[in-house]
Write a structure and sequence with these properties.
By secondary structure, the protein is of the alpha+beta class. It has twelve helices and 13 strands.
Length: 442
């Protein structure tokens, strides 16, 4: 018995089968019980037995009624038989029952029983008629009310059926509750919350699935952590050779080749700096230096670095300019990366920078009219080292870390970064920042 209980506890299929079987059984019991009570509210009328008809004189003591009939004896005989007796003559009409359900005058002859008794039929029912002393005695089974539907029984039956269905719903819902938790957990893991684990004490198939998902998240987190640690270690190790290369480069004669080499070393140095900054922001307790800044004026000061851009750069600041608490250095890095992307891909077309305010948030919007980003790349474009131009052509520049850093900086402030784009129509990047670092965007 214990083995069976353990098998049921460990098997989701067996428990669902048990719930289904119990539901079907309860429904059958309720239906049978309801029909039984409904149909038992009336009785049927049986045919007159043959031996009763053949022995009418010995079974029914017509003589005890007498002629003229003794009505008291007739009533007593009717009660003993459980039948209805009607007595008819030209001067008499009497019945043992007040409600005569049969009009005996309409009955038709069927066959004779004796010299003074015969069977008549009406509506498929037999009537015994005995004629003695100028009186006609009609005997037939007592009137019984037609079976009626017991609505109370039906209502009770329907109520019990509804309760069974409701109980079945709650049991199945409770049994499958971990599925919703697994879905929510999978969504959080998919969205990058690799530290999230689904709690479950189930020991059935859903418990095993939960454990598998948690193990998968552990593996993903370990692999990504190993990747980050490797990148960070490589970044730190490369700084010393780069410093030496820069120093030696200063002793070389000025030439186009030296300039190109210097540019390449600066690109590598910038990449390493971005990697280290991304690692800092990825830490659970990354420290931001909060300062009260009028966000509109700050954005305008950053855009002034791009006065040499061949296309126009338009800045629109919502009025009045408002004060926000931000990490100036990191927000400057965010704006610089966004503007660099817009300039790099803007094809010398106009660029717009807009700052708008709501009650608790500021929105910084950078819009270019460049080649745009294909829809299939939008979800991954803010991931590290991801680029829509996977060939990484030299003339497009960039390292694949710019938008990733922007997203990390926005999220570190409790904000969001949203990218919208269509091929041939340019890109629109919106950064939403809360008024204070501790607030979360709506």
């Amino acid at each position: 018995m214990n083995a069976l209980v353990q098998s049921i506890r460990r098997s989701l299929f067996l428990r669902l089968l048990l719930i289904f079987g119990t539901t079907v059984l309860l429904f059958l019991i309720i239906i049978f019980w309801s029909l039984r009570l409904v149909t038992d509210t009336g009785n049927t009328i049986d045919a007159i037995p043959d031996f009763f008809s053949r022995n009418i004189d010995s079974i029914i003591d017509i003589e005890s009624i007498g002629s003229p009939p003794n009505l008291a004896n007739a009533m007593r005989l009717a009660e003993e038989l459980g039948w209805t007796i009607q007595i008819r003559s030209p001067i008499m009409r009497w019945s043992s029952d007040t409600d005569n359900r049969i009009d005996v005058t309409q009955a038709e002859f069927d066959h004779s029983l004796s010299a003074d008794a015969e069977i008549r039929r009406i509506g498929g029912e037999d009537i015994i008629m005995v004629e003695r002393g100028g009186y006609e005695f009609y005997l037939y089974q007592r009137a019984v009310p037609e079976p009626a539907i017991n609505y109370l029984v039906l209502y009770v039956g329907f109520t019990l059926a509804a309760l069974v269905l409701l109980l079945n719903y709650f049991m199945v819902n409770r049994l499958l509750a971990p599925v919703r938790l697994l879905k929510q957990g999978a969504e959080r893991i998919r969205n990058g919350d690799l530290g999230f684990r689904v709690d479950s004490d189930r020991q059935d198939e859903l418990g095993e699935l939960t454990e598998s998902i948690n193990h998968m998240a552990d593996s993903l987190q370990s692999m990504l952590e190993a990747k980050r640690q490797l990148l960070l270690a490589i970044s730190h190790e490369l700084r010393s050779p780069l410093a030496k290369a820069k120093l030696r480069l200063e002793f070389l004669d000025e030439s186009e080749q030296a300039d190109q080499l210097r540019e390449d070393i600066n690109d590598i140095d910038l990449l390493i700096a971005d990697l280290i900054e991304a690692e800092r922001l990825n830490q659970e307790h990354s420290v931001l230096v909060s300062e009260a800044v009028r966000i509109g004026g700050f954005v305008r000061s950053v855009t002034e670095q791009y006065v040499e851009y061949k296309g126009s750069l338009e800045v629109k600041i919502g009025r009045p300019d408002q004060e926000f608490h931000i990490d100036k250095l990191r927000i400057r890095l965010l704006l610089t990366n966004l503007l660099n992307n817009a300039v790099r891909h803007g094809e010398n077309k106009p660029i717009q920078v807009k700052v708008s305010f709501s009650e608790d948030h500021a929105e910084i919007e950078v819009v270019d009219q460049g080649e745009g980003i294909p829809a299939e790349h939008l979800k991954q474009i803010a991931e590290p080292f991801y680029r829509a131009d996977m060939a990484r052509r030299r003339n497009t520049g960039g390292t694949g870390l710019g938008l990733y850093l922007c997203r990390l900086i926005a999220e570190a402030h409790g904000g969001t970064l949203n990218i919208q784009s269509k091929v041939g129509e340019g890109a629109r990047v919106v950064v939403c920042l809360p008024r204070r670092l501790s607030e979360t965007p709506a």
